[in-house]
């Protein structure tokens, strides 16, 4: 549709454009809703793993579920 926009017709072109905008909106909403998970996973992926010492206490931070 990009190279030959006359081949599809105006209705298909309109549908294609509107669905593209809708998909972009859902993508942004999806990233916004999962932002905490993305940050946590990225940090844990790139953090340096260190060995646990015997008797070391691990703190857990739990997120409340609504």
Summarize the helices and strands and which ones pair or pack.
Layout: H1 10-33, H2 35-46
Per DSSP E runs of 2 or more residues, the count of β-strands stands at: 0
User: Structural class of the secondary structure composition?
Assistant: mainly alpha
Radius of gyration (CA) equals 23 Å
Helix content: 40-55%
Order of helices and strands: HH
| Percentage of residues in strands | under 5%
pLDDT < 50 stretches: none
Transmembrane segments: 20-40
Protein name: DUF4405 domain-containing protein
Keywords: Membrane, Transmembrane, Transmembrane helix
Essential attributes:
transmembrane; single chain; 55% helix; 66 residues; mainly alpha
Describe it for me?
With 66 residues, the chain is mostly helical. Helix content is 55%, strand content 0%. The protein contains two helices and no strands. The protein has helices at 10-33, 35-46. The radius of gyration is 23 Å and the shape is elongated. The chain starts with 9 loop residues before the first helix and ends in a 20-residue tail after the last helix.
In short:
The protein is mostly helical and 66 residues long.
């Amino acid at each position: 549709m990009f190279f030959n926009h006359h081949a599809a017709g105006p209705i298909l072109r309109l549908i294609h454009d509107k669905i593209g905008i809708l998909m972009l909106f859902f993508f942004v909403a999806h990233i916004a809703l999962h932002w905490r998970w993305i940050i946590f996973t990225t940090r844990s992926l790139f953090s340096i793993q260190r060995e646990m010492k015997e008797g070391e206490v691990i703190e857990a931070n739990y997120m409340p579920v609504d």
